[in-house]
Write a structure and sequence with these properties.
The complex is a heterodimer of chains A (317) and B (285). With 317 residues, chain A is of the alpha/beta class. Chain A folds into 2 domains: 38 residues; 252 residues, 2-enoyl-CoA Hydratase, Chain A, domain 1 (Alpha-Beta Complex). Chain A has 14 helices and 8 strands. In chain A, helix 10 crosses helix 11. Chain A is globular. The two termini of chain A are 41 Å apart. Chain B has 285 residues and is an alpha/beta fold. Chain B has 2 domains: 39 residues, no CATH class; 225 residues, 2-enoyl-CoA Hydratase, Chain A, domain 1 (Alpha-Beta Complex), CATH 3.90.226.10. Helix content of chain B is 38%, strand content 16%. Chain B has 11 helices and 9 strands. In chain B, helix 5 runs parallel beside helix 7. The longest helix of chain B has 17 residues. The chains are: A alpha/beta (317), B alpha/beta (285). At the A-B interface, helix 7, helix 8, helix 9, helix 10 and helix 11 of A face helix 5, helix 6, helix 7, helix 8 and helix 9 of B. Bound molecules: zinc ion. The site of zinc ion has 8 residues of chain B, from loops.
């Protein structure tokens, strides 16, 4: 069963009519084929036009779409020989952040990212992608491991934010995020970050300090959730849509602000409609980004990354 | 509604004079125990309540005066920022909020940086200012941290940072979030130069500030009973729907959980920092 978003009513109707048409068994087959063709054309145009002018608020819904590819999809489609590496060697293994070594186009890479899960059981296992300190400390360990063996790092960012809980605070959530950000800035191997869905605040930035920060066309990245921002600045979470607009959270805005380096195009109608095309698009973007740093010295790679983040905030809209 | 209430009343109030009606100028009510205190008395007492020892939130000027030898220091100029980079407007325009905050403050943003001597050691001190828009961190505060680190490197001195922040400056959106890695680079530069970076966490230090440069000090100090956290207590309560433990996210709780080196009473702050600086800088016997 496909999940439709609230702005997709006419898309849902068209798709259902096409399905009905296709399931008609009797009647004039040529006329049915022609009608299906006509409807599919109409659907294609409608998807294009709807997704070309998504508002910030609609993008949040797309970014949070349950059928959107998650880390596990990226790992199985983009990497071969992937081996998961677990634990922070201190307290536990936090499954909200998954990491491991695999091959990307034959080359060894370290993969670290948030996993939200895709059904009730796995969402609970991965705590909906909301990491605790152990997740960030695992990330730090893997970043240093990659650095030690000169293996490039690719991170996938998809989280509503770091988990706000008693245990998380008790065990130093703030310090863990700070150390993960620091580790991103310390390594001398290329670090490529891809914001694939939701980039929520400090829990996102902890994995997103890359030489190149790539962002999916309909992903969002924000200092605070629009709901949270609205309840503070507007004193009601009902103004979340206004907050979403004001906060400038879309890939298109972030490119203008030079916070990200590149927008990765999504298939017509969003990544959740066509995983295969999404994977092709992301593969190409990561490939190009890694290539760009293949001939640069390790000291320079670190220095370029630091310089880039030292300049954050110079460009406005 | 009518022009009398909107326009004339404030004027009449001015003529009548507010001093006799509002005791704000003379009296200070302790935010912790509610005791009414003479403003003069609490100022003399480093803004600590003599009744309950509550450390009141204070701005950069009070800090600088208390810390540097003879209260003598030089303010470090901060580079101007890209004002209102997102053209942000909630119920009010961000530019109006900024203007209002500046009118109430002697500073341009929620941080000030100074240079001077503590004991025998020259040092740079940066102070975040909760009284300026809740101490929120935007590009301006980022400029303060970066400038403070650069100044320390230029002068080959340690950097002491007093943190205070309600979190990120939402009106600067993603650019405020980007100050987390940006300021982290500033700290790394300091470390690469072999210079000490001492953080003093004061009430409150929360959100993206805590989750970046505020927890990366070589030495981590906190004032007593300061709220220090990533997620605020209300957010956590709303998420887990449980009562929070006593003293949760306060300095004493952090010390007990191994997150900081020591808690230092404001009356002992200058002495403690001076001794620390000396140990870290004047190393020879
Ligand atoms: Zn008191």
């Amino acid at each position: 069963m496909q999940t439709y978003l609230d702005f997709e009513k006419s898309i849902a109707e068209l798709e259902s009519r096409i399905r009905d048409m296709k399931s008609l068994e009797s009647g004039d087959e040529i006329n049915i084929a022609e009608e299906v063709d006509r409807l599919e054309n109409k659907l294609d145009k409608l998807l294009r036009s709807t997704y070309a002018k998504l508002t910030s608020w609609e993008k949040i819904k797309v970014a949070r779409h349950p059928d959107r590819p998650h880390l596990s999809d990226y790992i199985s489609n983009l990497f071969t020989d992937f081996m998961e590496l677990s634990g922070d060697r201190n307290f536990s293994d936090d499954q909200a952040i998954i990491g491991g070594i695999g091959r990307f186009n034959g080359q060894s890479v370290m993969v670290v990212g948030h996993e939200k899960g895709n059904d009730t059981e796995s969402r609970i296992k991965h705590n909906f992608g909301m990491a605790r300190p152990e997740g960030f400390r695992k990330a730090v360990r893997l970043f240093h491991l990659a650095d030690q063996f000169k293996i490039p790092i690719v991170t996938f960012v998809d989280t509503a934010g770091a988990y706000p809980g008693i245990g998380a605070e008790e065990r130093g959530q703030a310090e863990a995020i700070a150390r993960s950000t620091e580790a991103c800035l310390d390594v001398k191997v290329p670090l490529i970050s891809v914001i694939v869905g939701e980039g929520g605040s400090g829990g996102a930035v902890a994995l997103a300090v890359g030489n190149k920060v790539l962002m999916m066309e309909h992903a969002v990245y924000s200092v605070i959730s629009p709901e949270g921002c609205a309840s503070i600045l507007w004193r009601t979470s009902e103004k979340a849509e206004d907050a979403a607009n004001a906060l400038k959270i879309t890939a298109q805005d972030l490119l203008k602000l030079e916070v990200i380096d590149e927008v990765i195009p999504e298939p017509i109608g969003g990544a959740h409609r066509d995983h295969e095309k999404t994977m092709k698009s992301v593969r190409k973007a990561i490939d190009n980004a890694l290539l760009e740093f293949s001939a640069i010295s390790s000291d320079k790679i670190m220095e370029l990354r630091r310089e880039k983040f030292l300049n954050m905030g110079n460009v406005g809209l | 509604m009518n022009w009398l209430t909107n326009f004339v009343r404030p004027k009449i109030q001015n003529i009548i004079g507010q001093k006799s009606e509002t005791p704000d100028n003379l009296w200070h009510k302790c935010r912790n125990c509610g005791q009414l205190l003479y403003v003069n008395d609490i100022e003399k007492n480093l803004h600590i309540c003599p009744n309950c020892d509550h450390h009141e939130r204070i701005g950069p000027t009070e800090r600088f005066k208390n810390l540097f030898n003879n209260g003598e220091y030089k303010l470090v100029d901060l580079p101007p920022t890209n004002e209102d980079p997102l053209k942000f407007k909630d119920q009010k325009k961000y530019t109006e909020r900024l203007k209002a905050a500046r009118n109430k403050s002697e500073f341009q943003d929620a941080i000030a940086v100074a240079y001077g001597k503590m004991g025998t050691v020259n040092t740079v001190v940066a102070v975040q200012n909760f009284l300026f828009m809740g101490g929120s961190m935007g590009v301006g505060v980022g400029n303060g941290i970066v400038t403070a680190a650069e100044k320390a490197i230029e002068k080959k001195t340690p950097l002491i940072l007093f943190t205070a922040a309600g979190g990120a400056r939402m009106q600067e959106g993603i650019l405020s979030l980007m100050q987390m890695p940006r300021c982290t680079v500033a700290v790394q530069r300091l470390r690469d130069a072999g210079l000490p970076y001492i953080v003093v966490l004061t009430d409150p230090t929360t959100g993206g500030v805590t989750a970046s440069y505020a927890m990366l000090g070589d030495i981590q100090i906190a004032e007593p009973n300061a709220l220090i956290c990533f997620a605020g207590p209300r957010v956590i309560k709303d998420t887990i729907r449980e009562e929070l433990p006593d003293g949760f996210q306060r300095s004493e709780y952090l010390l007990e959980h191994g997150m900081i080196d020591m808690i230092v009473h404001r009356a002992k702050m200058k002495e403690t920092l001076t001794q620390l600086l000396s140990l870290l800088v004047n190393k020879a016997a």
